[in-house]
Amino acid sequence: MTKKIFAALLTAGLLLTGCADDSADVKGGNVVQAMPSNMPTFTAKNLDGQTVTNEIFASKKITVVNIWGTFCPPCIGEMPELGEMARNMPADAQLIGLVCDAEDGSAQIQDAKKIMREANANFVNIIPSDKALVDFLNNNFDAVPTTIFVNSKGEIVGQMIVGANVDGYKDELARLLK
Q1: Which one of 4, 14, 59, 146 is most buried, counting C-beta atoms within 10 A?
Q2: Considering the entire predicted model, what is its pTM?
Q3: Amino acid 169: pLDDT
Q4: In the sheet where 62-68 sits, what is the strand order?
Q5: pLDDT by residue (tens digit) across 95-138?
Q6: Which CATH number fits domain 3-177: 3.90.1150.10, 3.40.50.620, 3.10.180.10, 3.40.30.10?
Q7: What is the average pLDDT value for the chain, to the nearest integer?
Q8: How far apart are CA 113 and CA 102, in angstroms?
Q9: How far is it, in rounded angstroms, from Cα 12 to Cα 83?
């Protein structure tokens, strides 16, 4: 499935569901399906055009991965809190974003940069243009924002959280860092 088709299907599905439920939580949240066990091997670009690979996970015990879209009001709404979270991360953790509707050369890259700038959210955001990363998103996630947790080996750990719930992300991160 191409990136444009994925974005169109995701957008259509989210229009019917409202992106995701803002009230989702870690324990009783709207987890829509089982999580994959590992992040794929990928080479992609971030919003600044720099190359990012799956090695980004190796330097930290836990990486919080927030999958979001520029079309999603709850995603945009949580960006200021995510920016604050990223600035106050423990030394053995990091936050990255995956902008699900952006691709190389797309208008969504500029939209994502503007959203991040206006929210004072200065953390790495990956453009999922690599086939392995696109397939990973297409096959595993039905709503945004969705947040997953990845250990230094690239294994997905903990609870997937569907919906804007920064307090839930923080709670799950603290649990995983123990």
Answers
A1: 146
A2: 0.83
A3: 98
A4: 51-53, 43-46, 125-127, 93-99, 62-68, 146-151, 156-162
A5: 999 999 998 888 999 999 999 999 999 999 999 989 999 999 99
A6: 3.40.30.10
A7: 86
A8: 11
A9: 28
